[in-house]
Amino acid sequence: MAATNGSATTNGGASSHRRYLYLAGIGVTHSIGYAMHNHIIQSLGLPFEFKNVECPSIEDLMALFRAPSFAGGVVTMPYKQAVMRHLDGLDDLALTLGACNNVYLTADGKLRGTNTDWRGIKGCLLNASPEGRGKPAVIIGAGGASRAAVYALSTELGCKTIYMINRDEAEVAALLADAQAYADNGQPGPHLIHIKSVAQTSGLPKPYYIVGTVPDFEPSTPQELEARAILESLLSTRDGEEKGVLLDMCFKPRNTRILKLGKRHGWRTVEGTGVIGHQVEEQWRLWAGQEASGNVPVEEAWEVLRKKAEESTAINF
């Protein structure tokens, strides 16, 4: 897939037949971002509608995105990597990260992919505390969302040492290979360390930022139980040691098992719904152009998102 520049559509997304924006993936019916986006659409007076659409396969997702009515889309699990080879172009950011969560139309109607997840991660972490800049960090998981976490932490927040917690060694190996794209002009990329056992955490400098990128689940296999024990070890601090910020990108439920664990250890915790809000301005620049994005009612959008998060029975349990 060739790299293309990051220029957003100037008119393709607003033409009369380009009507629908989508969140597409598996398990998306609970997601709350559609309310925020539809509020923005109404505020801007655009002829769009934002929908959550369940896509059992990547072919289903691409059929949706190739339809004449497509105006833009958010890609979620499990297609953030798989979608890349099906698009007409990718910007340099998507190629560097190795994951795409946003698809938009170019001026000539081509499908181009980029990544805005990292903005959500960075925004959530800094909003909680800026004190983690340059300190060791942790990422839980090694799938598509973890790529945005690596970028946000290493490139944007200067966290060059990142501990990886993941039960699948092959996934981590693939992430380590992708991270080589960050090396520049002879300078090394981030130092990713796969933590495979609790014993390995002994003596490690404590992390400040922790980002969860996996669905909420109760660990049951030996590998899952060990991964959860590793996280608890990294969360544990002695008297006087600094406690940091734990963000879980998963928000079904809002109060995930990982967040509960962080709270028990006295960490500041951030639910994943905020990741949606911190991407909104860049998403609308890509979908509707610079002028429209400048008129996005950001504070109102956040209010709608927070209200929906509080009211949704699909994520409050």
UniProtKB/TrEMBL annotation:
All copies of domain Shikimate dehydrogenase substrate binding N-terminal, residue ranges: 24-103
InterPro entries per record: Aminoacid_DH-like_N_sf (IPR046346), NAD(P)-bd_dom_sf (IPR036291), Shikimate_DH-bd_N (IPR013708), Shikimate_DH_fam (IPR022893)
Gene3D superfamilies cross-referenced by the UniProt entry: Leucine Dehydrogenase, chain A, domain 1 (3.40.50.10860), NAD(P)-binding Rossmann-like Domain (3.40.50.720)
Coiled-coil spans in chain: none
Name of the molecule in the record: Shikimate dehydrogenase substrate binding N-terminal domain-containing protein
Lineage: Eukaryota, Fungi, Dikarya, Ascomycota, Pezizomycotina
